[in-house]
Amino acid sequence: MDQHYSYEEVLSASERFAWRVEDLIGGERRLDFSKLFLPDSLARTEALDFLDPEERRIVNQIRGLGYLYTFGLVEEFILPFVLDHVRSRLNEDDARVRAFLSFASEEAKHIQLFRRFREEFENGFGSPCGLIGPPDAIARAVLSHHPLAVSLAILHIEWMTQRHFLDSVEDDQALDPQFKSLLRHHWMEEIRHAKLDTLMAEAIAASCSEKERDEAVDGYLDIGGFLDAGLAQQVELDLASFTRATGRRLSEAEREAYLATQRQAVRWTYIGSGMSHPNLLGTADRLCPGARAKLEAIVPTFC
Ligand SMILES: [Fe+2]
Ligand SMILES: [Fe+2]
Questions:
Q1: pTM of the predicted model, to two decimals?
Q2: Which ligand is nearest to the CA of 78?
């Protein structure tokens, strides 16, 4: 074991540091559309040098909408998965049951927060933006994989959230304070999820055969491939949203450059930054021997 987390510790933190949706969004707390929403390490809009600064800011904001929408999407499969996991052993450990129920409750709260955010975005942005979905179809496809593979995908998402906030959001003073506040509050709760998901993956792996452990990494990569295909569609939708918002028609070469840059930007944002996280690699390799080498060989495609 290279990580030691306990249900008691996570439960205690979730009781001490909780926030309410209504304290974060609505009323005076408005998005400022004159500002950037995402750091450029995730948005990569500075590379679109054929756009002027205002156009790049609009692409950045469209990516900001997609960012929180994508979290809402994945939370729609995390929530039932966590509930199924806790339900299988309700009588063994009170702290475990309560910690997983608070995990599920926080994800339900995040889904609600990100829906509210989407309404505010759509009201303030000025033109409609396309989004992939529907969430329940995506959730069904992901949950059809082996539970160990799903738990690795969820662990990837939780560590990825930590990395984004700490590496590039926290110290970026150019971002809209309201958007940044949503990211900060989400990050605060996701650290507990990362710990619980580590415990969840360990518990699932303990009841798996060697063959199931071997295959779980391929299942995790299948889920990644499925999400990657959805994200490629989102990039096309984002370009259509940009064209609607600005009226700017890109030349064929500009369009190709936009799609290639943004395709790689979303690959890093949602796949590479999670797959290469040391804690994801550490847990995956401990539970599924050989996982690290396999994942490290694939990561460069998503950077
Ligand atoms: Fe969340
Ligand atoms: Fe989470």
A1: 0.96
A2: 2
Residue whose C-alpha is closest to residue 227's, from 73, 87, 17, 8: 73
What is the whole-number distance in angstroms between the Cα of residue 197 and the centre of ligand 2?
9
pLDDT tens for residues 94-121? 999 999 999 999 999 999 999 999 999 9
**Which ligand lies nearest the alpha carbon of 191?**
2
Question: Which residues touch 185 (CB under 8 Å, ≥6 apart)?
Answer: 19, 24, 113
DSSP string, 46-113: TT-TTS-HHHHHHHHHHHHHHHHHHHHHHHHHHHHHHHHHHHTTSSS-HHHHHHHHHHHHHHHHHHHH
Beta bridge partners of 175: 36
Locate 104 and state its tokens: 């599920």
Cα 190 to ligand 1 centre (Å)? 6
252 by Cβ neighbours in 10 Å (0-12 / 13-18 / 19+) ranks as exposed
Ligand nearest to the CA of 68: 1
Question: 110 C-alpha vs ligand 1 centroid, how far in Å?
Answer: 5
CA distance linking residue 77 with residue 206, whole number of Å: 22
Q: Which residues contact 13 (CB under 8 A, 6 or more apart)?
A: 192
Residues 6+ apart with CB under 8 A from 269: 42, 67, 164
Distance 245 CA to ligand 2 centre (A): 32
How many angstroms separate the CA atoms of 189 and 167, rounded?
17
Is it true that the peptide bond before 134 is cis, omega within 30 degrees of 0?
A: yes
Q: What angle do CA 200, 15, 158 make, to 5 degrees?
A: 40
Taking the C-alpha atoms of residue 227 and residue 235, their distance in angstroms, rounded to an integer, is 12
State the distance from the centre of ligand 1 to the C-alpha of 253, rounded, in angstroms: 38
> Over the stretch 208-225, which tens digit does the pLDDT of each residue have?
999 999 999 999 999 999
The confidence score (pLDDT) of residue 1 equals 44
User: In 10 A of CB 145, how many CB atoms?
Assistant: 20
Question: Residue 283: its pLDDT value, please?
Answer: 97
Altogether, the residues listed in the chain come to a count of 303
